[in-house]
Amino acid sequence: MTELVLGLETSCDETAAAVVTGDGVVLSSVVSSQAELHARYGGVVPEIASRRHLELVGPVLRAALDDGKTTLDDVTRIAVTQGPGLVGALLVGLSAAKAVAWSRGLDLVPVDHLRAHVATLYLEPEALEPPFTCLLASGGHTLVLSVTDRSGFDVLGGTLDDAAGEAFDKGARLLGLGYPGGAEVDRLARDGDPEAFSFPVARVPGLDFSFSGLKTALLHAVRALDERELERRRADLAASYQQAIVRALTGRLRAAAEQTGYASIAVVGGVAANSELRAALPDAHFAPLSLCTDNAAMVASAGRFADPVPLPGYLGLDAYASAPS
Ligand code: KG4
Ligand code: ZN
Q1: Which domains are delineated in the chain?
Q2: Which of 132, 164, 239, 266 has the most CB atoms at less than 10 Å from its CB?
């Protein structure tokens, strides 16, 4: 029987479901973003996120099946994000997945959100074969990885403070832009001069990152300008700030690739949608734009390479907030 994986993702503020074939063809990918709901608070409010997931998980799951022109009768396994993320939000997806798997007698595969981001690269039509060196840059994580097989990775470096996406979001807030800020900084930066301001790239040993000094540098630059001047220089600030983040990311990815010696490099996670980063790494494999930020196609993809947990064991699965160390 050919595998048909139904993926579910509710780790943060996107409620997502997708149907992916065992060969990695995406039949459907539905993402309902709650970003607008959280925008007025300037970040994700966990309790609000959980409640909204609860309302959306059923309709989104049904929409993914409809879009994929399939039914639960054809699905062979359910893959669901178990962590890391907001525990209350994760539990909604995990409980829904347990219920559907149990009622249909299906296998359930718990998936790690970070592995799921990497598994975006294993989707058709341009599936990438390990080994490769990978940068995972999202709102919650910034890691350089050595990927030698499709079921996991080794961590070569990570951030000592903020994640790259977090740096984008905090920078956006300092520049008076909305939440989430990465895409808005990206847009505004197109009209700016990246050399206008000189922002530092942190000197951290090894393959680690640090973005907190950069954020402080932006704060000082913003404070040094009066309101009119700030308005006039906003695009320059965005472009210069973005360039500093992109330089830090590309520098570490190149150094990591040198260390592993693998021919291919790849970038995944929400920040992989950044146009400047994509332009700076013309030789890298990027997740398609629609699959950079959180989605369930990546979860279903990862679910193809992990072992299912049999009934009744999966009924006892719990969500986890941070990556197991
Ligand atoms: O992977 P993701 O959807 O969620 C996490 O797992 O964290 O990543 C979201 C992050 C946010 O911080 C957002 O600002 C950032 O990805 N992001 C971008 C862009 N689009 C989304 N950052 C820079 N440029 C973009 N175009
Ligand atoms: Zn993510």
Answers
A1: 4-123+292-316 (3.30.420.40), 132-287 (3.30.420.40)
A2: 164
